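Ticket #4471: structure output looks truncated?

Reporter: J.K.
Steps to reproduce: submitted the chain below (290 residues) through the standard prediction queue, then opened the result file.
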Amino acid sequence: MEKKKLDIAFVILHYMAVDDTIECISSVFEHNDRAGIHVIVVDNASPDGSGAVLEEKYSGDPDVTVIKSSENIGFARGNNLGFRYAKENFDCRYIILSNNDIVLFEDGMLEKTDREYKNSGFAVLGPMILTKDGRYTSNPQRMQALSKKQAQEMKKDFENFLLFQKLFIRPVYIIYRRIFKKKKKRSRICDHFRRYENVTLHGSFMIFSREYTDRFDGLDERTFMYGEEDILHRRLIKNGLKSVYTPDFAVYHKEDVSTDSASGSSRKKREFYYKNLIASLGVLISEINE
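Returned output as attached by the reporter:
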């Protein structure tokens, strides 16, 4: 059976925050030509039953597919369920991985993406990301890929944070760092209103072209959450592929909705962050050959 040709397959990872997911889907259809897109929602085993709510809401919509995971398999593996579904069922020019707390508010994204692809042949494209506190500096996330030494130092730092957090004396380590650790100068200053190539893109909204989708079935699945962007950047470098940041269009990011739902209190949230980032940095370090 011939696959349906699409301009874009949107993969939206859902966890509990059902109103945000619905708003995200609505914004996708509002600002894109419905005839050329399909939305794939992956419910990451939401314990509040909101996956079933979405399944029922969109059961009659031929342009929305809801996939329900039997367990919470994390960010990369959850996104990959949708990524693989898109590849297996559609002939997509682009696959977009989007957090469910993203809201589109501009028209013309496809045209601008096509123009950039014609110009650069990018593998992964990231737009300007606006946040509720007025920032527009989330993307690019990093101007240069982390070196092995930087990743090792970062991993050690977060291991110390986690240890002091468990001992209920995290502020002690923060004070120690401020006194004894020299603040490193940023190697490149980023002007977020300029276009950049080969930068680390923020994972909340990434556009993958055929340069990437023809070779890979999504993200590295050895992580649960956090650090996926750095691992992706290393994969691109290793395979001679290009990432691009463009300020030509923007999306709005509410930030941390799924993480807040998953980790609860601020203390648990910090521990959740430290543990998973430490594991992800371990994966990154194993991928860096320097």
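Triage note (M.O.): checked the attachment and the full token line is present. Strands lie at 4-14, 37-43, 64-68, 90-99, 102-104, 124-131, 196-197, 205-208, 243-253.
Status: closed, working as intended.
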